[in-house]
Amino acid sequence: MNINTHFRELRNNYFFVDVLNKSHAYARLHPDAKILHLGIGDVTMPLPGASIQAMQKAVDELAHKETFHGYGLEQGSDFLRRAILDNDYAPLGVDLSLDEVFISDGAGSDIGNTSDLFAANNRVAVLDPVYPAYVDTNVMAGREITYMPCQAENGFVPEPPKEHVDILYLCFPNNPTGTTLTRYQLQRFVDYALAHKSIIIYDSAYEIFIEDPDVPHSIYELEGAKEIAIEIRSYSKTAGFTGVRCGYTIVPKETGLQQMWYRRQCTKYNGTSYISQRGAEATYSPEGKAQVMSNIRHYKQTAQLIAVGLRSLGYEVWGGKNAPYIWCRTPHQMDSWSFFDMLLEQCQVVCTPGVGFGELGQGYVRFSAFSDRKDVEEALKRMKTLA
């Protein structure tokens, strides 16, 4: 038996586990401390009522032989795929067919699973800093990785690679920096991929936070994108489905990968829960849309509160608009973990060290808007003692 030795090239722990372990260790030593979590990107608002009702109805259906649902389609149920096309893409003028939509258990899974489509000798380009899953899944596969620098000097907006790469991972609105690409900036990546016959894996899990009209909601709004892009979305941040698990991936036929992905799903995926899919479908009802946007407005206000509050304390920040994340430069040239430790020990506030997202994340931390307003206000009040 031979193991995949590329696993040895990974860091010992998944980065966010280190953050949780440090937070839990502090809590054990200080059981009376009220720790405020502004780091991990888990939601805090409850599920939309429309989704709760739809899932309760789905559970009731499973209790009776006449309405019982067993194995579903690996590609997902038609009712949800149709709702996605009618609500997420048709208003953008994007024409897709039902068999180009694949329901999943969330964006995180498909970010890794799409790796199955590509040979190990493909060269990959990712941003730096970057969400760790893009790097880890390709390290596991033994691929070479090129990094596209995102720094304060370029406003954390990357340039297309100067050399040839086969696969590009883009996430906008961005995790962790909270920045976005304009249509012109994203079109440059599409044009690069067309010229190099590359594929873009486009993670648009946070598109619902977009407000600026010049920031595209889907990569398929750009000319030629359906030939070179796979788009991945999730209901986790949109509708609070982090514990329910549901998302979807678009694989246009023009990429030449749609049938491969369908075949992969038939073999390796037994389909998303009927209950979860009914809950996701309900987010497109009039009631569901209103409830979802109510939660998103809350997170947008929290993001602005964090960004404005940190600036008032003298910090340099990015993001907080069009995205739920705020990217903050550490004071006094502190490294990311040192500032994390100081915030935890002196303020009982948890952020996310930027260095965990890559070398160019050193000297930064990420704050998440997925928090209660009162916790954010209290955290900023505590941080005044550091200013």
Would you kindly provide a written description of the structure presented here, covering whatever features stand out?
This protein has 387 residues and is of the alpha/beta class. A 7-stranded mixed beta sheet has the order 2-8-7-6-5-3-4, sandwiched between helices. A 4-stranded antiparallel beta sheet has the order 9-10-13-12. Strands 1-11 form a two-stranded parallel sheet.
Quick overview:
By secondary structure, the chain is α/β, with parallel strands linked by helices. 38% of the residues lie in helices and 14% in strands.
Question: Which features would summarize this protein structure in a list?
Answer:
alpha/beta; 14% strand; 7-stranded mixed β-sheet; 4-stranded antiparallel β-sheet
Rounded Rg: 21 Å
- Unreliable spans: none
SS class: alpha/beta
In round numbers, the mean pLDDT is 96
Number of helices: 12
Largest sheet geometry: 7 strands, mixed
- Element order: H for helix, E for strand: HEHHEHEHEEHEEHEHHHEEHEEEH
Strand order of the largest sheet: 2-8-7-6-5-3-4
Oligomerization state of this entry?
Answer: single chain
Please tally the β strands and state the result. Answer: 13
- Kindly estimate the percentage of residues that lie in beta strands according to DSSP: 5-15%
Distance between the termini: 57 Å
What spatial form do the alpha-carbon principal axes imply? globular
Helix content: 25-40%
